[in-house]
Each structure stands twice: as structure tokens, then as C-alpha cells.
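Researcher: Re-running this chain for the archive, since the previous output was lost when a drive failed. Same request as before.
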Amino acid sequence: MELKQAKDLLEEYLPPCRDFLEQAARGMDYYQGRSSIIRRGMPGLEWMRQWQRDNGKNPLRTADNRIPANWHRILVDQKVGYLFTYPPRFDLQGGGAELNARVRQCLGDCYEKVLRQLGTDASNAGRGWLCYWYDEGEPFGYWFVDPLEITPVYDPTSIRPRLKAVIRQVRPVPGEQLKPGEIPPLRTEIWTDEELTVLVGEGDKMEVTQVQPHRYGRPPFIEFPNNEARAGDLLLYRPLVDAIDKVLSGMANDLDDIQEILFVIRNYDGQTTSIDYVEQPDGTVKEVPRQLSVLHKAKLEKYFSVSGDGGVEVLKAEIPYEARAAYLQMLTRQLYATAMAVDPAPERTGNQSGVYIEFLYSLLELKAGLMETEFRPALAEFARAILQYLGEKRELVIQQLWTRNKPRNDTEVADILVKTPDEVLSPESKTRLHPLVEDWQAERELIKEREEG
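Model: Regenerated C-alpha cells:
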């Protein structure tokens, strides 16, 4: 790709993605505990304190706790754990046990980790990205990519979304020492169906450093959307998360400030100003009046001077615990419903039946089902990339077996399978659905060997 063509492509597709990248970065910040309360604190609190300091007054309330409850991470990990604790398994129809074993070998030991990270990225940023690579005689490799680095380019002439190119921008760690304040150059990769173009630098200093053809037949990146809108989960419930953080931080501030007292002084006739003596450049000394804080004077002298009918009263802060506790409980319950999550509520769950557990997980199952709908085509495309690497037909039917991680009554499931006649459900299907079987194909091989022996 020529330099001018590459620059035109970047100018066309990078600016529209800025809003998406901003939302994605916010979701990832909340997941790491860097929520709004950390960046801004309690609304108006810092402004009020700064005004008091600028006017020579001592702020009475000095606590500034910023406590993130990190609800976003709890909800994301709940969904990802529900979907990917037992990662989906592939069953290639017509490929035989040998081909399935070769595909599992290509997946390797990192399949579970990569899939969980793709689910986490999709929940935070709206979509996750997987990159794969291989060469002649080399093993099949793949890994997840930071979604903030990727800008997709879809074919506008295709009704069905088709990935036409992928733009990846990253600042790699330099191999040599940089000067203070110097940042490493920006590396831009443009992957098309036929080649990879690498550009280094920005603006007028951007130059093409590498153009390399590849053998994949498409950009070797696969998108894993969170939902049809490619929106992160945080958009559903961010105001509720911020409200909970404010309640917790405000409560902590009140507990710290409860030791502070407010003096109400009647007919105070003591000193309210003092004189500072400042030496001038010419050697003379100038008197500069300064407002004297009453509280500061009291801490120094340990007494107040009032007239005959004057006096001092003490006010202490009161903490509305009951109101805050009720408000926090209301926010938490609403958060579970809005986030479509599971509230364990152990005080209400107890030893419940399988029907109640299904009802308890209904909202989470609905949200997880939407992600599964988007992940299934992406995983199928990933499996076809492995088939292409193995030299097999990409047109094979790829069946995916998804297993949810939720409490279930294994005795009931096993009892149903035992009572189901073979005319309704084959022995292979019974083995595949049995709750104690992890690899049903290997289990069928053992059963076959035992029957033949």
C-alpha cells in the first residue's frame, strides 16, 4: 500500500472511532477500579475547600475519601465466569475423532485464558479482538489484542459485514534509551486481504517501513462483539455505580469528620486580625494585616474571650445512617436488575430447587445469551482458520458445545438421562449431556473399548 493511500485510509476511519475508543477506555478504567469517584471525588467538595482556603478560612470538613466499590468488575467477572469457566468445545461434523484431536492440539493450553480475556474485553470495550498467525512448518499461534489498538474497516458494499482491513496502532517499547520527555514513535499496521503495511511516525513524519504479503486470505483478526450494538456493559448501569461510590465515600468522610466540632460564639469581642511584618527589598519593614481564623486562635490559646452575656456552644456532625443504609440497599437491588446480573442473596436463597435457580439466573442467562449469539460466528471463523492451517476443508459443519457455570442438581439431570429410552436420545447424546463427563468423545472411546474387550 502506498503512503498516500494509507494516509487517506487513516484519515477516513480513525476520527469516527474516537467516541467508541473513549467509551471503551472508560469501561476498562472502571474495571480496574479507576471510576469517576477516584478522578473527581465528591462533587463540589474540592471546590468548596479551595474557596475557603483562598479566603483565609480553615475548612471544617477535611476528609476526602474516594472509595470505588468496583461493582463493574464484579458484574463483568460474573458474566464471564458464567460463560467461559467451561470454554466452548468444537465438534467438527464429518471430520472424525482424529481431526477433532488435531484442532484441540492447535488450541493448546491458552484457549481458556484467551477466551476469558476476549469476554472481558467485549464486556468492557464493546468488542474483543483475536489475532492468529502461522507459517509453513510452524505451529498455529493466536492471542488477544487490546481493543483500544484496533480500528476495523468494513466493506461498505457488502450487506453482510465483511472485514476489509484492520488498522492497529501501538507505541512499542523502544529497544534503545529515549531522552527525557521523548516518546517512542507510533507504529501503524494496516492489514488487508493480501498484505501488511507498516508505517512509523505521525503526520508529515509518517513513512512506510515495510510492505509484506501474507497467506491468510483475509486480515488475521477476528472480532468478538459484546452485543449487536457493540456497546460495553458499563453503559447500562454507570449512574448506579457512581451513586453507590458516592454513598460509600460520603459515609467515610462523615466518619472521619465526626471528630471535628463547630463552635457557635455569641458576642465574641476577641481579636479577628493580626499583623504580619514583611521585610521589603529596600530593607524597610511593612505592616501587613491578616485575617485571623477563630478556630486557629482557639487551638493556640485554648480559650475564647466573650462579653458578659456571650457564650460558646458546640455543634457536632450527625450521620444519617438509617437513611444511607436504606438508600444503599435500594441502589444495590436496582443495580442487579439493571445490569441483568444475579444477586446471590444467601439469606433468601437457602436450599432451593432447580426451578428457583433457573429463575434466579434468568436475567444473567438473557445477557449471556446475547453475547453467545455474537461469539458463535466469531468462534466458527476461528475454527475455520485452524482448518485452513491444517489443510482441511473450511466448509465442514462446526458444532459448538457451550456449558454454563451455575449451580445445578446433577442427580436430577443424570436421572432424566437414565430414564430416557435410546429411541428418543442416542447413547452418544446421553454421554455428551451427562454432568460428570468432560470429554464425551474420549468417554465414548473408553466405552467402545470396554464393550469390545
